[in-house]
Amino acid sequence: MRPCAYLEGYHFKVITDHIALKLLNNIESPSGRIARWALELQQYDFEISYRKGQLNIVADALSRQPLQETSRRVSVEDDEQPREQQGCRLLEEMQGNMKQQPQKFPDYLEEDGKLYRHIPHRAGNEEVASWKMCVPIGQRQRVMTENHDHDSHPA
């Protein structure tokens, strides 16, 4: 079942604080991603109305609820990673810069020969610290393929 199958055949109203979305149906010659979205949405009978985010209290409360993590975890092999990082000039440069001037790179951390970057994000009203491993160039294609080539990823 498609995610929005329950909307087919019904007229519904989308209330959004994203003003550009209201203009989506008025674009004369959309291209790229916008064209794909416009084509996908043509099958539904709906209208879009704009409401300031401050006034859209229900949606605001829903969007601020913390979500359970649903992302896939792709492992970069521990034995391959340091060797791959050594072959990646960009990561080697960053590690060298960190050793010379660590105060300039507070969002980076080297642990067990691996380089990590701190990427803060919000979950509800609180900021959550998240350290992401810097993926060597030689493994990026595999990581992207493993994350995008499965049923739960939108096309």
TrEMBL record:
<protein>
    <submittedName>
        <fullName>GD17730</fullName>
    </submittedName>
</protein>
<dbReference type="GO" id="GO:0004519">
    <property type="term" value="F:endonuclease activity"/>
</dbReference>
<keyword id="KW-0695">RNA-directed DNA polymerase</keyword>
<feature type="domain" description="Reverse transcriptase RNase H-like">
    <location>
        <begin position="6"/>
        <end position="44"/>
    </location>
</feature>
<keyword id="KW-0255">Endonuclease</keyword>
<keyword id="KW-0808">Transferase</keyword>
<keyword id="KW-0548">Nucleotidyltransferase</keyword>
<keyword id="KW-0540">Nuclease</keyword>
<keyword id="KW-0378">Hydrolase</keyword>
<dbReference type="InterPro" id="IPR043502">
    <property type="entry name" value="DNA/RNA_pol_sf"/>
</dbReference>
<dbReference type="GO" id="GO:0016787">
    <property type="term" value="F:hydrolase activity"/>
</dbReference>
<dbReference type="GO" id="GO:0003964">
    <property type="term" value="F:RNA-directed DNA polymerase activity"/>
</dbReference>
<dbReference type="Pfam" id="PF17917">
    <property type="entry name" value="RT_RNaseH"/>
</dbReference>
<dbReference type="InterPro" id="IPR041373">
    <property type="entry name" value="RT_RNaseH"/>
</dbReference>
